[in-house]
């Protein structure tokens, strides 16, 4: 898969082009402790290399310069005893299917040589300070040697838009991995639904989710983004991650959590009653959000614009707010004045892939982008009523509901990758009491 990705990018290079890429480095957490390593998503996509401080050079049709060379940390028994195994260049060629690999100490010299020989350079300015400095130094050196016939590349092309566009359309292999991430996540959500009880702490549920992610093959931290486990009015804080409060009898619990599998993210939200039974007000709000979500998923068809789903969700949510007498006026007034936005707050969808908010353009030539087969997006409408909002009838205050699924756009219509977790009211209540 990674070799195929690299070849696909290579096919878009012209003769005389050189492309340079840097992977992620370790990041300090505190004092001499690092965060767990996470490879940069695009570097992973092109290499399948999970080691820190790796770099890549691709060169097309340039005599004396390898077409591809991955630069990795050298084998070092002492370092590996302390910090873990390394592939080394030979291991990289063998296990990652590279034609050439070298130690990363050789990268600067090799990049300098390749850039010297290049007509055009592919480099994403601003994404890696060290690489920017190397390119700047290299170009300055070449310009200073112009009387000797040297020349800096005339054109520097940003490779990010090309790779982002590739990443936006998922291959079958990628969908298989995304389905695995979604399945693990859906099962973890189902477990959380059946285990949550009044009197537990939010972090107990968080721990169950993360245990499930890791125990079922998720890598690194197990999660694709910090889990939101928000009981009661905490659900009205969109990116709540303290996860340390008691779960109240009669409250809802909103969980927004997804596993990361082989680098690919799931992003699922469910909201359910902690004591297994929705109150009438909770049920009313939940049903509106569910209706909005179902209508939006139905719209996930090839050719429909990305933003058309948000319009559909907004309309259903607005009508629901009117029907529940939370806002007044007609649907037309409400949509015109956007009075519903106070309670819907966020957008309805984003791309999903190696990054939870994945790369890829949302607009083409200023217009909302039409959906294509192979895209994966979330559908996640929500309604949130602040506990202190006196404009809202009392029974709704402090309720926050979001329902989020991961949808693969296919010729046959929307494929819900995360459908394994209940969301109809009866099914949710049954799962909660089971
Ligand atoms: N979990 C982040 C989001 O739903 O976008
Ligand atoms: Mn999301
Ligand atoms: Mn989410």
Short description:
This protein has 434 residues and is α+β, with helices and mostly antiparallel strands.
**Tally of helical segments:** 14
Oligomer: single chain
Order of strands in the sheet with most strands: 6-5-4-1-7-8
Give the tally of structural domains: 2
Distance between the termini: 40 Å
Work out the number of β strands: 20
Structural class: alpha+beta
Rg is 25 Å
The small-molecule ligands in this entry are: glycine, manganese (II) ion
State the helicity in percent bands. Answer: 25-40%
Low-confidence stretches: none
CATH-scheme architecture of the largest domain = Alpha-Beta Complex
Which CATH C-level class of the largest domain is it? Alpha Beta
How is the biggest beta sheet arranged?
6 strands, mixed
Question: What do the pLDDT scores average to?
Answer: 97
Q: Can you identify the CATH superfamily of the largest domain? A: Creatinase/methionine aminopeptidase superfamily
Q: Proportion of β residues?
A: 15-25%
């Amino acid at each position: 898969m990674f070799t195929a990705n690299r070849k696909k990018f290579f096919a878009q290079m012209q003769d005389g082009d050189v492309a340079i890429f840097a992977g992620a480095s370790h990041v300090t957490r505190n004092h001499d402790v690092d965060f767990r390593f996470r490879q940069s998503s695009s570097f992973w996509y092109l290499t399948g290399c999970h080691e820190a401080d790796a770099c890549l050079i691709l060169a097309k049709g340039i005599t004396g310069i390898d077409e591809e060379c991955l630069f990795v940390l050298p084998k070092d028994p002492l370092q590996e005893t302390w910090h873990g195994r390394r592939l080394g260049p030979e291991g990289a060629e063998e296990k990652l299917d590279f034609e050439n690999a070298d130690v990363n100490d050789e990268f600067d010299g090799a990049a300098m040589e390749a850039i010297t020989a290049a007509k055009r350079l592919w480099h994403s300015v601003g994404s890696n300070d060290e690489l920017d400095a190397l390119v700047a130094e290299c170009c300055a050196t070449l310009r200073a040697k112009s009387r000797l016939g040297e020349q800096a590349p005339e054109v520097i092309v940003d490779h990010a838009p090309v790779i982002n566009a590739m990443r936006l359309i998922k291959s079958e292999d990628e969908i298989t991995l995304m389905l695995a991430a979604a399945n693990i996540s859906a099962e973890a959500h189902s477990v959380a639904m059946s285990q949550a009880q009044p009197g537990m702490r939010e972090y107990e549920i968080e721990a169950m989710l993360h245990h499930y992610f890791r125990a079922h093959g998720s890598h690194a931290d197990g999660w694709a983004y910090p889990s939101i486990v928000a009981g009661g009015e905490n659900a009205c804080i969109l990116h709540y991650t303290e996860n340390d409060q008691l779960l109240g009898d009669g409250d809802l619990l909103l969980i927004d959590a997804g596993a990361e599998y082989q680098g690919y993210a799931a992003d699922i939200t469910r909201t359910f009653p902690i004591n297994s039974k929705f109150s009438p007000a909770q049920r009313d709000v939940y049903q509106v959000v569910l209706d909005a979500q179902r209508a939006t998923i139905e719209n996930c068809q090839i050719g429909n614009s990305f933003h058309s789903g948000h319009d559909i969700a907004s309309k259903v949510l607005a009508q629901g707010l009117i029907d529940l007498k939370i806002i007044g006026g007609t649907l037309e007034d409400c949509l015109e004045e956007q009075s519903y936005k106070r309670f819907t707050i966020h957008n309805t969808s984003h791309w999903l892939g190696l990054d939870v908010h994945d790369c890829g353009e949302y607009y083409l030539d200023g217009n909302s982008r039409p959906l294509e087969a192979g895209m994966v997006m979330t559908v996640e409408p929500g309604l949130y009523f602040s506990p202190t909002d006196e404009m809202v009838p009392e029974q709704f205050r402090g309720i926050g509901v979001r329902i989020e699924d991961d949808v693969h756009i296919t010729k046959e219509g929307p494929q819900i990758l995360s459908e394994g977790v209940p969301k109809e009211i009866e099914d949710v209540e049954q799962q909660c009491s089971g």
